[in-house]
Amino acid sequence: MLVLDGKTLQYDRPFSHDGVNYPANWLRLTTPAEKEAIGITEVADPVTPSYDQHFYWGAGNPKDLDGLKTTWKEKTSATASSLLAPSDWYAIRKADTGAAIPAEWSTWRQSIRDAASAKQLTIDLQTDVSGLEAYIKTSTGAESDYSFWPADPNQPVAEASDEEVTIEPEVVSGDTVVTGGVVDGAGEDVISL
User: Which are the contacts of 59, defined by CB distance < 8 A and separation ≥ 6?
Assistant: First the structure.
């Protein structure tokens, strides 16, 4: 930040000093020595403390804890609802026809409801805004368990692998495509168009 006579100067703005009017581009076109010659000094910008607007009105000014708890419990319910929505048809079909919900889907749907309840209980147990913030997210940028939900039966959990998998498409003839991806020795997929 550039300062002259106790006032902050801004780049691309004209200014006056000792009866001389300086044009808007003067600060950009001059050397540090030329700036010093008329009394301009460079000082460090003031440090503004950071804060998360989800939890604070300003640095050191937390929002109402009860209001935050309500908001985050509602967000938790909305997330659970959106996760369950694609498989709601199983429950509707069971109510309409009596057809059973597949066991893996029934188990998964219950695990989503259980996870939502556990998350909401943990939110309720927080005694201050910083504790709630820490539960929702961690200060290191890593996500807390709040962000993790059980994977549905159509999305099995991938196991960690050190192998790099590449799939490079290749056109073999005018109307047949071979995906040249040999994935863990599984072979090639041929798609006829």
Answer: 48, 49, 50, 51
For residue 35, report the phi and psi dihedrals to the nearest 5 degrees: -65, -45
Tokens read off for 4: 């002259």
How far, in Å, are 50, 54, 79, 126 from residue 58 at the CA level? 8, 10, 27, 20
Dmax (CA) for the chain in angstroms is 90
CA nearest 90: which of 79, 104, 100, 82?
Answer: 100
Dump pLDDT digits (tens) for 85-99.
Answer: 999 999 999 999 999
Q: How many helices (H) and strands (E) does the chain have?
A: 6, 10
C-alpha distance across the termini of the chain, in Å = 64
Burial of 119 (0-12, 13-18, 19+ CB in 10 A): buried
* Structure tokens given for 27: 């600060």
The pLDDT-based confidence of 147 (bands split at 50, 70, 90) is confident
Give the model's pLDDT for residue 180.
Answer: 45
Alpha carbon separation from 75 to 8, 81, 189 (Å, rounded): 44, 10, 42
CA 63 to chain centre: 21
3-state secondary structure of 49: coil
Per-residue confidence at 185, pLDDT binned at 50, 70, 90?
A: very low
pTM of the predicted model, to two decimals? 0.59
